[in-house]
């Protein structure tokens, strides 16, 4: 989830022009969980809250001054300090360009999986899993989240820590907080406004996080969307879900494996609301068949709320034994030889909370199985 880096400092007035001149197309994922950069599959969702988003233009100087005042008050941080740090933040063209990149065409599952589950990623995953077996086992015992799932997450997010992001997080969040790209499409205006406010909140949380974890706000790096460390946590997720796994008094998601693994597991356990939260030793997904004469059922939120009886009534039948009493969501994937159907259980839903995409969740699950040495199902 990492991209290039580099250049340009512009004056505020020039920035406004640049921001207006940018012609991005489809904005990415509407939700931004632990990690943030969008996957092409995720689409913009209509949100009833759109109506309440204030679209009145606000001058940069006013928005900045409000931000300084509000953040100082909210976190008890000296306003002068916030102002001085912001004065060193740099608007990044490359961040805007990456954020406004047209969404790729939605890949079919077989192509997506081939890209995500390369032989190299599987091999590195097995190596990583073996190297960190002891720490991962401890985390599993404490939280119920298996080591192979944690390994698969760091595998898809950062290639096991190889690519954690070279963008200065301060610059990335500053850019998206005040110059979030606008498409000019009225249908997307509310969405884009909400995204800008989301990043403005993340920028504020970065100030709080830096103080709490003694990070150097001027040097910490991450993805172009401001996600940090091996598991790519946004500042708000870092503050809310990170855990001090080794008990040294700090939550270090950059270099400390105990902290990194414990934090990813904690995110799985805590995030997800009433439906979510990782279930110890729970099944993730099971392949299914759709009997002839039945229509596909494709709920878009992947909430695992349908009983096996509900699904049977809609023509779905699991292709492997599934414990009675479980609830699931049906998942349709476009495979190389036609449609593939799955039941996604509560732990599948928990993976979608990390990144709101059905293919992401399936890829993480299948990578975790491959890391254990299991043969992948056909794609
Ligand atoms: Ca620690």
UniProtKB/TrEMBL annotation:
Gene Ontology BP terms: peptidoglycan catabolic process
Residue ranges for the region (Disordered) are 25-48
Keywords in alphabetical order: Signal
Task: Give an example GO molecular function.
Answer: peptidoglycan lytic transglycosylase activity
Signal peptide per UniProt: 1-21
Q: Write down the InterPro entries for this protein, in alphabetical order.
A: Lysozyme-like_dom_sf, Lytic_transglycosylase_MltB, MltB-like, SLT_2
Name the CDD domains on file: Slt35-like (cd13399)
Q: Which PANTHER family match?
A: MEMBRANE-BOUND LYTIC MUREIN TRANSGLYCOSYLASE B
Transglycosylase SLT domain: from which residue to which, for each copy? 63-369
Keyword hit for Zinc:
no
Name of the protein this chain belongs to: Lytic murein transglycosylase B
Identify the catalytic residues.
157
- Per UniProt, the ranges with Low complexity bias are 25-38
Q: Name one Pfam family in it.
A: SLT_2
NCBIfam families in the cross-refs: MltB
